[in-house]
Every structure is written in C-alpha cells, then in structure tokens.
Design brief:
Elements lengths: L2 H18 L3 H13 L3 H14 L4 H13 L3 H14 L4 H13 L3 H14 L4 H13 L3 H13 L3 H10 L2
Helix pairs in contact: 2-3, 2-4, 3-4, 4-5, 5-6, 6-7, 7-8, 8-9, 9-10
Length: about 170
C-alpha cells in the first residue's frame, strides 16, 4: 500500500472512532449551533441523536421542542415540553414555551394554564403576562386580558402599551 492510501485509511478510522465517542451533550452543542444558524432540520437531527444516546436528557427534549416549534410542528413541540415538565416542574421557560405552542394550535385555555404556571414560578415573567393577555382576549376574557396587559406594562413591556390602547379602550 502506498503512503497516501494508508493515510486515508487512518483518517477514516480516526474519524469513525471520534464519531463513536460523541456524547449526548456533544450532539446538544452541535444542535444548538445549527439552531443558531437557522438550520432547524440539522438541529433536529442532532437533538434526536442526543436522545438516542440519553433518552432521559431533559435539555435535549427542551431544545428539540424549541426547534419543532420553529418548524411549526406544534403538537410534537408540546410532547417534548411535556417530557421536560414531567422531570422539572419548576422551569417557567418550559411552561411559557409549551403555552406558546398551545396558543399556535388555538388551544387558548391550555395556553393560559401554562402561562399561569410560568407566572406562578416566576411572577416577573413579562412575556407570560403578555401572551396570557392575548390568549384571554381570544376567548372573550377582555377585562382579565387588560389586567395582564397592565402587569406586562408595569414589568416594562413597551409592546403591551400599544396593544392595551387597541384592545382595552
């Protein structure tokens, strides 16, 4: 065998060995980088690989849910957020994100329930107040929606000011 062929064989061997040693966390990092570059399908594949290696990895479920949301696969995103919530019921971001997915499916009451949980965990979660207001407005709870918009404004949400003028006066 010539030296060039041996080099190629060695390179393939070392590449294969390196791939075999990747951990769930390695795939999560790779998926997050792909997500940052808006390569959602590539990120999804990496999060799937992370979960194949570690089916209990809550972070992989959370990030995969986020990517599925970006791909408008809301029902699957909810399923991933359900997995996170089952293992960590004190993460406001999970309930906020799941609420957003439910909102997109027009499950406004389910979204409100999740925004309620997020606010209970983090009473300063301005985005949950704002989104809960819009969900409440969509089911006809105008007065309660306006109170949530007032709270969002109090917490510093400038967008809520314009929405409040439009919906509450």
């Amino acid at each position: 065998m010539n030296i060039k062929f041996r080099f190629i064989i060695a390179l393939v061997f070392f590449y294969s060995a390196a791939m075999a040693q990747q951990t769930s966390e390695d795939f999560i990092r790779s998926g997050n980088m792909k997500e940052d570059q808006k390569d959602f399908k590539g990120a999804l594949a990496d999060f799937d690989k992370a979960l194949q290696l570690d089916p209990e990895n809550v972070n992989a479920y959370y990030y995969r849910g986020f990517v599925k949301f970006q791909l408008k696969d809301y029902a699957s995103a909810i399923a991933d957020y359900d997995s996170v919530a089952a293992n960590d019921s004190n993460d406001a971001e999970t309930f906020y994100s799941r609420g957003n997915a439910k909102f997109e499916l027009k499950n406004y009451k389910g979204a409100i329930d999740d925004f309620n949980k997020a606010i209970y965990i983090d009473p300063t979660d301005v985005d949950s107040y704002y989104n809960r207001a819009i969900a409440k407005y969509n089911i006809g709870e105008r007065e309660s929606a306006c109170k949530d918009l007032q709270m969002a404004i109090k917490l510093g949400d400038k967008t809520a000011e314009g929405v409040m003028q439009e919906l509450c006066h």
